[in-house]
Each structure stands twice: as C-alpha cells, then as structure tokens.
Design brief:
Pfam families: KH_2, MMR_HSR1. The chain is built from 9 helices and 9 strands. With about 290 residues, it is of the alpha/beta class. The protein folds into 2 domains: about 160 residues, P-loop containing nucleotide triphosphate hydrolases (Rossmann fold); about 100 residues, 2-Layer Sandwich (GMP Synthetase, Chain A, domain 3), CATH 3.30.300.20. Strands 2-3-1-4-5-6 form a 6-stranded mixed beta sheet, with helices on both faces. Strands 7-8-9 form a 3-stranded mixed beta sheet.
Length: about 290
C-alpha cells in the first residue's frame, strides 16, 4: 500500500514556507514575497513522490500580534498543526532557536516534525553544520535537513524523509491534481504577488484582494478584482501618478495569471478604501477569512 498523509509547513514569518511549497510542487500555488507575513491562508498542495502522496499545508507565519487579521493567521497555522500527520518546521539558517522553542510550546499534541533549514546558500557549510547540531541537541525533531531552493539542494533528501515518516494509507486525492484550492483563491494570491513585486516594502500591510467576478472560458478567463486598502493615501500609492503604478501591477499580474492558467487573461483592477477592514469581522469574512472574536 502507498503512503499518504498531511504535512504542515510552519515557521516564523518569511522563513521561506511558500517558496518551499512551490519548489516541491514545481508549480506556483502559494504567494512568494520577501515581505514578512505575505501568506494569510492555508494552501493545500499535492505532491506525488514515487507512488506516495504528500498533501502539503502551507500556513501564515507564526507570530503573536493581537490584530484580528493576525489572530486569524495564527489560528490557520495552529489548525494546520493539528491536522497534520507530520510537520515541517522551517527555520532560516541565520536565525536563533527562539522561534523553534515557541513552536515546541504550541505543539501540545507532539505531532512528529522535521526541522528544515532554509536559505543555506547564504552562509558557509561550517555554519550550516553548527546550526544542525544546535537543533539536534534539543532531541525533539525526527531529523534536521538543510535545503536551498535557490541552488536546488536538498529536495530529494527532504521528500524521502517526509515519505519515510508518513503512514501507509490509500490516496486522499486523485494523483492528477496538484491543489485543492479554488481557482479564485489561486488567482487572488497571484494578484497579491504582483502587488508585492511592484510595491515592495511600500505596500501597506492592510491590503487585500477581493475577486468580485470570475468568468471562465476554454481559452480565456475574465477577472474583475478589487484591491482593498484602509486609507486614501494607500489608494493613491497603488494607483500611482496618472495610473502608472496600477498599470504596472496589472501587466505583471496578467503575466503570472497566464503562466499559471495556460490561458489568456482579461484583468480589471479597482482600488477601494474600506477604513478599518483588517479589524472588521464582516469584511474579513467577505474576503474569505474565518474569524472568531
């Protein structure tokens, strides 16, 4: 019987979780951005490794902020932890172990886990070896595996380790599909990635995307999306002088959308000011977040 199971990907904000998911999958499903806390919702992706099936649960970064949106993000991460057969705890090889120690406190059910050291291309091999020993000394992880998505190192070793610790189980999903996410959610994430790419650190944290309408055809998808911000100054930043910035965002977003879908994309982008949306339960739910006060 093949092995099949759910694998949560957890770590501090910007540890490289979405990059890892896309790298293992070979497709762009999760938002990749250098800005911390870019991911806000779990993404289920399915990787076939030989005859075995790995269902990856990407999550927002673990953090302790009190804002309502951040509470949702922490809830998503903890739900992925409880739903998992195995957890990958991702840690930037340059970081100390404080994030890992907090993860161990949160892991009250003692879900088995592997520590994955990311961005190892940025330090020496000796520094990588020292960091591996630091984690191993704690004696909590099944394994500690260094990887570099940039250099393509550690992928097979990591996949083999994941499969080693998964239970024998029939496939949960058709092996032909790569994600359980609705196409709307994937399109939303790709538009958000375009925002991060074109605005960088200038992009306000309180920014989100609402897909107002999606029309799907054989060779064309029409997407009508609204960029939600909290202040008029943020709206001006996204639109830019004479609409230059939002035009750049739209062009880049269409490129990402067409690369993913294999279709032509018609995209209309609007910008709307909704004061305090990130603290508004009704608005968060409209954007697809499940929030408990």
């Amino acid at each position: 019987m093949p092995k099949s199971g759910f694998v949560g990907i957890l770590g501090k904000p910007n540890a490289g979780k979405s990059t890892l998911l896309n790298w293992l999958l070979g497709e762009k499903i999760a938002l990749v951005s250098p800005k911390a806390n870019a991911s806000r919702k779990r993404v289920n992706a399915i990787v076939m490794h030989g005859d075995d099936q790995i269902i990856l649960l990407d999550t927002p970064g673990l953090h302790e902020k009190e804002k309502l949106l951040n509470k949702f993000m922490l809830k998503e991460a903890l739900k992925a932890l409880s739903d998992s057969d195995l957890v990958l705890f991702l840690a930037d090889v340059r970081d100390d172990l404080s994030g890992y120690e907090w993860f161990l406190e949160l892991n009250t059910k003692n879900i088995p886990h592997i520590v994955v050291l990311t961005k190892t291309d940025l330090v020496s091999e000796e520094e990588v070896r020292k960091k591996i020993e630091e984690y191993k000394k704690l004696g909590k992880a099944l394994d500690v595996i260094p990887i570099s998505a940039v250099e393509g190192k550690g992928k097979d070793e990591l996949l083999n380790a994941i499969v080693k610790y998964l239970p024998e189980h029939p496939y949960y999903y058709d092996p032909e599909i790569i994600s359980t996410e609705h196409i709307r959610d994937i399109y939303k994430e790709l538009i958000r990635e375009a925002l991060f790419e074109k605005l960088g650190d200038e992009l306000p944290y309180e920014t989100d995307i609402l897909i107002e309408k999606l029309e799907e055809f054989d060779n064309l998808d029409k997407i009508y999306a609204t960029i939600i911000v909290e202040r008029h100054s943020q709206k001006g930043m996204i639109i830019g002088k004479r609409g230059k910035k939002i035009k750049e965002i739209g062009i880049y977003a269409r490129k990402l959308l067409e690369q993913f879908s294999g279709k032509k994309i018609y995209l209309e982008l609007y910008v709307k000011v909704v004061p305090g949306w990130s603290k508004n339960k009704k608005m968060l739910e409209e954007l697809g977040y499940e929030v408990e006060l």
